[in-house]
Amino acid sequence: CGGVLNTPTKQYINKLADETEKLNTRNTLQQRETDNLRSIIQKRRVQNKGKRVVLKGQFHISTEELRSTTPRLIKEATIEEIDEESEEELYDSDLDELAL
After folding, report:
1. CB–CB of 16/24 below 8 Å?
2. What's the distance, Cα to Cα, between the start and end of the chain in Å?
3. pLDDT, tens only, 70-89
4. pTM
């Protein structure tokens, strides 16, 4: 029975090779999916507005420089605050009416 493998051993080796290939493929696909999800999470963490974006990459900035680069953002934030306050007032008036 010298150098030739008998049939059951050959079949076992082929099955092992097939399973190894399947596992390697599955591992590669899961690794890609993990990398994609990590990149999505990183993108979500990046800020798109606010003073941190304006200050990104700058170590020294004066108040005047900050104001000159963010007038629109400050106005938008003020408008949002006013909207939130008016919504709160609506809730308060609704509660007053319910109490009567």
Report:
1. no
2. 101
3. 656 555 666 666 666 555 55
4. 0.39
